[in-house]
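S1.2 Input.
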Amino acid sequence: MTMHRAALSPDPRHEPAAIADRLALPERRRGRGAATNVSGRFEIQTRVDFDDGWTHDEAPEPLVTEVIWEKPRSVITRNDSPDIAFDRSINPYRGCEHGCFYCFARPTHAYMGLSPGLDFESKLFAKQGVAALLERELAAPKYAPAPIALGTNTDPYQPIERQYRITRSILETLRRARHPASIVTKSNLVLRDLDILSDMARDGLIKVFLSVTTLDRALARKMEPRAPTPEKRIEAIARLNDAGVPAGVLVAPVIPAVNDSEIETILTRAWAAGAREGGYIVLRLPLELRDMYREWLQVHFPDRLKRSVSLMQSMRAGKDYEAEWGRRMAGSGPYAWMIGRRFELAERRLGYNETKRSLRTDLFIKPAPAENETGAQLSLF
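S1.3 Output.
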């Protein structure tokens, strides 16, 4: 077995003083997950918060969540990644108000000219007309059904879903078409749609996974400040399973020296709530997340920064991140091996994943194409 000797990067941006210079003003980041709002990698100019002395006696305005409508041309995203169990997904929103500092989708906000930091959780995009687009794509002559994953990038049940109800409109469309889907979420808001989910579950068309990163409420508040508490997520697993909707658990991400001690306890609590399928993913740090991870540790756990980074790099061949298929989810090296074996032992002891429910595709009813669509049946009169 090869041991990767990890060391802190000599990059000057990772020095404590440099991190402190980037931190957003405490009043601005209160109740948020990211510690900075540094400009995205495509921007010519760099933005940082700083105190110029003029507002010494005035508290800075807290960040307010803004929602911008986006008009997508298509709704189903395809992928051919060999280490992902689905080949298509739908993301109703860009950005996520839950504020999970570790979210691997954060770097995508740079494509919008925004920061993967505080902008990602305060400047959100809602996709307009998604249900109609989805129906059109399902009605395409060459479309063949396979499970559609919701929640692969940002949470489909983040707080703004209460108002915008885009996720519900997607599920309504899938139910009418009797099309299979899976959901990953951190929110008990999923219970609002129990009427649709239970209908789909009776036909073997749905499964749900609740992501539980910690059972420590105080730690959860630091890691994912606007997501429902861990207890609410465990309760959601129980209520879904009681209603006949198969609900499993994801221990994701596993962060060294932060929540890696909780793998067994999370699996045990979720099993008691009825979860029978489970999985885990180790921390992933693409692009801007490499700095954001250190910034978050500097704010909340400065005493753990060196150890956490060292262990994380030991799982990534001495680097901050490996993007290779098959290694990006589980990592490599002795520490990653130990996490994997701990999960497997707990999985085997409790009885997880003994049988995995496959979603049905044989019930699919192709929607009738709209009359103005190419290939639609024309009216005789």
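S1.4 Remarks. The radius of gyration is 22 Å.
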